[in-house]
Amino acid sequence: xxxxxxxxxxxxxxxxxxxxxxxxxxxxxxxxxxxxxxxxxxxxxxxxxxxxxxxxxxxxxxx
Length: 63
Known about the structure:
mainly beta; 4 strands; 0% helix
């Protein structure tokens, strides 16, 4: 049985982009970086922060 993918959610302090990184597929050298600006994003949450049936991070893009 699987519980699905685990995500970390970030917002870029430079351009404001909202994005998520999948824990399983993360390259350590780029994990958390904005895909547009290449600066470290501000960590805003992770999968465990969503309550059952809630998706407050739905508008965060997949990286």
